Amino acid sequence: MSETASTNEENKLPLNGRRAIPPNYSNDEENEVPEMEAFGLIPRGFNPRDYLRVVDIYMFKDPHEINKQEHHTDKYYNPKLIVRRGQAFQIQIDFNRPYKPESDQFWLEFLMGRYPQQNKGTYIPIVVGGVLKPGQWGSKIIHRENNSIRLSIMSSATCIIGKFRLYVAVLTPFGILRTRRNSATDTYILFNPWCQLDAVYLDDEKEREEYVLNDVGIVFHGNVEDVKSRSWSYGQFEENVLDACLFLMDKAELELSGRGNPIKICRVASAVINSRDDNGVIAGSWNNTYDYGVAPSAWTGSVDILLEYYSSKQPVRYGQCWVFAGVFNTFLRCLGIPARLITNYSSAHDNNANLRMDFFLDDEGKVDTKLTKDSVWNYHCWNEAWMTRPDLPVGFGGWQVVDATPQETSDGMYRCGPASVQAIKHGHVCFQFDAPFVYAEVNSDIFYTRMEKNGTQVVENIDTTRIGQLIVTKEVGGDGMVDITEDYKFREGSDEERLALETAVMYGVKKQSIQDTTYQPQTDVDMDFQAQKAILGNDFKVTIIFRNKSRNSYTATTYFSGNIVFYTGVTKREFKKHSFSAKLEPSSSSSFDIVIKSSEYMSDLLEQASFHFFVTARINETGKILAVQKAIMLEIPALRIKTKGELVAGKETSVIVEFTNPLKQTLENVTLRLEGPGLLRTIKKQFGRIPMNSTLTWEVKFTPMRPGLRKLIASLNSDALRHVYGELNVQIQKP
Asked: Is the pLDDT of residue 274 over 70?
């Protein structure tokens, strides 16, 4: 930039004694770039038209043209050029006369933000040379014809990602002539998992197609005995989603110069996707009341949430863990960072990372809800993002846990990660960020502790296997489930597991040893608990089974407590209490049935239709206590989706959504949502009520845009019934 340009800027800048220029964290703001940058006095006879002049720049930016095809960006619903870093792309420049290399001199300039600086990577001048070096900025002429030249441009494999402005500068004896500001030549540069020099390089094509290019996914929920799944539309290629994702980094005030680093981007995004402490994207709500907002279970995908936030700049209400994780996954895939959504069943929400969840029992052996502060989530969703970790020792790159659900603060903000999955598995929790917290989520033990009258604590039972007993994600290339528990931990009871635990404790994870507390387990009697499959609105039965392995007769005073819980394991209300005395004959099994009636639970049922049962039994002869707890999900009926007529791109067709009310009551305030990435934008329809046993039918006309295999996703939401989903795979034919 010339002297005159910089003095103008100085007049505008607010004086600040600490830095010469203000912080530069807006991708949207621009500086004014002079079209004529004079070297000094300009002679009177100077006419810019006498010199080489740019008439037009052609970006090859249509989805079917070479750039978007080679860079795997043809699916983005965005008219501008989108390329991935570290890989060559082409542009054509038309001049007013043939280009003469011996006398003409021109170069390209890519700029970002309001204060472009070369050393910050926000001002990139590119001189035309002879060879392109892999992973470094450069350009060379690959074709010349008449007044046109075609350039191949290589971007750096570490360059910052975002939207750059492009100028072509021509050198004349008296100054630099530049092209006018033209937003049609703006170029988005994204991460490149196809480039070996990129920090997010992933070497398997099938995995890249799944973790970067797939715009729908599966959320696994329910509980470990009853895994349920639903589809989620990520929609990372939909209109304006890329701009919304770049805006999130502006909102998080991430310096432009830091935006080439996936570690930094993940860390700031995990904070800005929740609204705690920074007015971020989604406001969480776990209390079953969703006034002035959308119930978390009603969302079918991320696009509505991101676009609403991008336009209103206010947190979108409401989300729970899978909503935070779904939106985070969209953000990561949109920018080109490979990402997947993970579900951890029986997830410990441990308030002080001591690997111990305490459930306190009173004198009789019932759980004391006032003293018990820890909670076990039926499931918890987070994300994994794929990247190298040059900030850690060798071997800790690959999948990293990132979590945008606000649970605990990290460095003063609600955020979590990136934490290396490999480091968590081996107990190396000293490596940043937030590894001890994630380690506790998958490795805690449950202690059943009885408080004596004099204040001493007696540990009655320890459950070492329940927490984190199943960790899953969607399979590559299909809708099935993959068990990835072994990525996070060694087999329960193996030597490696013991070693990983000792390592974690050495690095500061607190673990109280059993020696601190008096604990003699009851070994000669086992207690188990089973429930038959329960359908919403019906009665069902549960069975308690004792196995007496000793030669003695025992009697067991048994307490049964049924609770309606949030999926976070927090109790809303105890709806069933039952106690009985069980006679246990020597060397035999006995079972006891308890019937749960729908009238007992329907009035207070929460949206995920989830129960939590505690059974505690005291063996009267020995005073020992047995304890078992189990979560149960009710079966919620699904929406039925079918299509009518043939499915051809560009031709109108219709889809029908049906639902039959299974409850013994009328459903009030019913809302249906339907969406399908690449098929149709989210459509909402409100129905006043659905009487019991009656069927609602909704027909929607739409015109599919693109051929290929697509997915329709629908949800139903009402006052009494939520978490009702349906989906349908559809094959759209070419016209």
From this structure: yes
Is 494's pLDDT higher than 90?
Answer: no
Give the pLDDT score at 604: 73
Q: What gap in Å lies between CA 458 and CA 370, rounded to an integer? A: 17
Q: Is the pLDDT of residue 513 over 60?
A: no
Q: How confident is the model at residue 127 (pLDDT cuts 50, 70, 90)?
A: very high
Beta-carbon contacts of 285 under 8 Å, excluding residues fewer than 6 positions away, are: 293, 296, 317, 318, 319, 320
Handedness of CA 593, 599, 600, 603 (dihedral sign): positive
Distance CA(153)–CA(156), nearest Å, equals 10
CA distance 453 to 363: 8
Whether pLDDT at 44 is above 60? yes
pLDDT at residue 13 greater than cutoff 60: no
Residue 445 is assigned to a ligand binding site:
yes
- 35 marked among binding-site residues: no
Query: Is 630's pLDDT higher than 70?
Result: yes
CB 122 within 8 A of CB 115: yes
- With cut-offs at 50, 70 and 90, classify the pLDDT of residue 606: low
Q: Annotation-wise, does 492 bind a ligand?
A: yes
CA distance 620 to 605: 35
So what's the pLDDT on residue 521? Answer: 64
Split at pLDDT 50, 70, 90, the class of 7 is very low
Q: Are 707 and 733 in contact (CB under 8 A)?
A: yes
Q: What is the pLDDT of residue 250?
A: 96
Which range among 10-14, 270-274, 325-329, 476-480 shows the weakest confidence by mean pLDDT?
10-14
Q: Are residues 91 and 103 in contact, defined by beta-carbon separation less than 8 angstroms?
A: no
The DSSP annotation for 343-394 comes to EEEEEEE-TTSSSEEEEEE-TTS-B-TTT---EEEEEEEEEEEEE--TTS-T
Of the chain, the end-to-end C-alpha distance in Å amounts to 52
Quick count: other Cβ atoms within 10 Å of Cβ 11?
Answer: 6
Q: Beta strand 457-463 with 695-702: parallel, antiparallel or unpaired? A: unpaired
Task: Kindly give the residue spans of alpha helices, DSSP state H, lying in 253-302.
Answer: 262-272
Chain centroid offset of residue 171 CA = 48
pLDDT 10s digits, 217-235: 999 999 898 899 999 999 9
Which sign, positive or negative, has the C-alpha torsion 320, 325, 326, 332?
positive
Residue 582 to residue 559: CA distance in whole angstroms: 11
Contacts of residue 648, defined as CB under 8 A and 6 or more positions apart, other chains included, come to 704, 732, 733, 734, 735
Average pLDDT (319-334) is: 97
Would you name the residues annotated as active-site residues? 321, 380, 403
pLDDT at 379: 94
Question: pLDDT of 711-726, one tens digit each?
Answer: 999 999 988 888 899 9
Considering only CA atoms, which of 232, 373, 359, 203 is closest in space to residue 305? 232
Q: Which two tokens stand for residue 613?
A: 């049962």
**Length in residues, the chain:** 735
* Three-class DSSP labels, 505-548: HHCCCCCCCHHHCECCCCCCEEEEEEECCCECCCCEEEEEEEEE
Domains and CATH numbers, the chain: 36-190 (2.60.40.10), 212-507 (3.90.260.10), 525-633 (2.60.40.10), 640-732 (2.60.40.10)
Spatial distance between the Cα atoms of 287 and 268, rounded to a whole number of angstroms: 27
261 is in an annotated binding site: no
Q: What angle is formed at CA 268 by the lines to CA 314 and CA 350, rounded to 5 degrees? A: 95
| Torsion angle of the four alpha carbons 713, 380, 323, 699, in this order, in degrees rounded to the nearest 10 | 20
Contacts (Cβ under 8 Å, ≥6 apart) of 447: 356, 357, 358, 359, 459, 461, 462
H or E, element range at 4: helix 3-12
Residues 575, 564: contact at Cβ < 8 Å? yes
